[in-house]
Automatic annotation (TrEMBL):
A Pfam match: Nramp
Presence of keyword Amino-acid biosynthesis: no
Annotated localization: Membrane
Keyword line: Membrane, Transmembrane, Transmembrane helix
Superkingdom per UniProt: Bacteria
UniProt protein name: NRAMP family protein
Organism: Flagellimonas lutaonensis
InterPro entries, per database record: NRAMP_fam
Gene Ontology terms for molecular function: metal ion transmembrane transporter activity
Primary location: membrane
């Protein structure tokens, strides 16, 4: 038994990083808010989204483990136009994703630690500098090992928090409480956000693929195909489970209380911590505070690493004659450039951050079914031996997922144009 556990710990890698990256605002904010506003019924769209999107992320691990090539190389092999599609999504991420994540994390840190005398921009700069240093010095191996600790702390903190709220029981509803409608305009828009970002955006499949490449490079004993998929499945299951934990916290502490929840992610996170401790007791503050900050810190670290890797990989495939993109030093430089770009975005566009995030959301939602189809095309290509291609059941789930994402994207576009 102990030997099996040690073997599992050694195999942990891309699946853990995926879980760490995915457990961000989609969990801390959207899952919690889903439970707070609509109750336990929100577990249905959470589970549904995780099931329907599973193949697209799994294909990143499957393709890389078999071919020892990144999924981005798979796009290039399909044709340069496929690579340009993915490059478009990456460009939007470069100028929006990290800025949004670091803003939320910085604000959360300031609220939780009651930091005063400094502004959000300086706190974000300190976080950019700290995380960039960790990534440059430690590289993939440090990221993997450190996240084993962070995710363990996060899981224990969330498990304890969830058990405590279940033991305490549901908060007493206000008089004449009426359950909000799910299928009105507000409810539909919330469902779109929840399912669109649960567990994360589909383009992250390319990130998982690059982490799988690094795992293969850094491992003395290369994980087998079965082991690689098993490790990813464990990380994916943990991602879905923690989303349900956050849902339970929101449902048991806020549902029916009539509390007005902020649309601002930083303020909302602070509300959750404050209201939770009011419901359970101040002694429990540390558990939810640690869970909230560990959630966002680990997401910042993995997303920063992923965007740096994917940017370099896309550029090296688009412009193979420019050798600078393949140098070892390029990763460190890219990490720093991304930090500076996104810090400038925070300073210059903090008042319009919502619009930038809306742009990123729009591009991500619209491109999701296209990226999903590209992933299927890659794993069904000629460089994938027949025995390693997805079986009929997984192919069927993939097509259902693509239809779901397409309808999702069309409805989202319609809502945006209508607005």
């Amino acid at each position: 038994m102990i030997k099996k556990i040690k073997q599992l710990i050694k195999l942990v890698g891309p699946g853990l990083l995926f879980a760490s990256m995915a457990i961000g605002t989609s969990h801390l904010v959207l899952s919690t808010k889903g439970g707070a506003q609509y109750g336990w019924v929100m577990v249905i769209p959470i589970v549904l989204a995780n099931i329907l999107k599973y193949p697209f992320f799994e294909f990143g691990v499957r393709y890389t483990n078999v071919t020892h090539k990144s999924l981005i190389q798979g796009y290039r092999d399909l044709g340069k136009r496929y690579l340009w599609v993915y490059a478009l999504v990456t460009v939007v991420s470069i100028f929006t994703l990290l800025a949004a994540l670091y803003v939320v994390t910085s604000g959360l840190l300031m609220n939780l630690l009651k930091i005063s005398g400094t502004n959000l921009g300086m706190t974000a700069l300190a976080l950019f500098a700290f995380i960039s240093t960790l990534l440059i010095i430690g590289r993939y191996k440090f990221l993997e090992n450190s996240l084993k600790v962070v995710i363990s702390i996060l899981f224990v903190a969330l498990l304890v928090t969830t058990v405590m709220v279940l033991y305490k029981g549901q908060a007493a509803p206000i008089a004449n409480f009426e359950q909000p409608k799910i299928f009105d305009e507000v409810g539909i828009l919330f469902l779109i956000s929840l399912m669109g970002w649960m567990p994360t955006a589909v383009e992250a499949s390319g990130w998982v693929s690059l982490w799988s490449i690094e795992k293969l490079k850094s491992s003395k004993n290369k994980p087998s195909f079965k082991e690689a998929l098993g490790e990813f499945n464990l990380g994916y299951f943990m991602t879905a489970l923690l989303a349900i934990f956050f849902l339970i916290i929101g449902w048991m502490t806020l549902y029916g209380t009539g509390v007005e929840l902020s649309g601002n992610a930083v303020v909302f996170a602070d509300q959750v911590v404050t209201l939770f401790t009011a419901h359970i007791g101040n002694w429990a503050y540390i558990f939810i505070a640690v869970a909230a900050f560990a959630t966002m810190f680990s997401t910042c670290m993995t997303a920063h690493d992923a965007v740096a890797r994917v940017s370099l990989d896309v550029l090296s495939k688009l412009y193979p004659n420019i050798g600078i993109f393949s140098r070892k030093s390029s990763f460190a430089l890219t990490v720093v450039i991304l930090a500076l770009i996104n810090w400038m975005v925070i300073l210059l566009f903090s008042a319009n951050m919502g619009q930038l995030v809306a742009l990123a959301t729009f591009v991500s939602f619209v491109m999701a079914p296209i990226v999903g189809w590209m992933n299927l095309k890659a794993v069904m290509g000629n460089d994938m031996p027949q025995r390693y291609r997805p079986n009929k059941s997984l192919q069927f789930l993939t097509y259902v997922g693509m239809i779901f994402l397409s309808l999702f994207a069309l409805y989202y576009c319609w809502m945006v144009l209508l607005d």
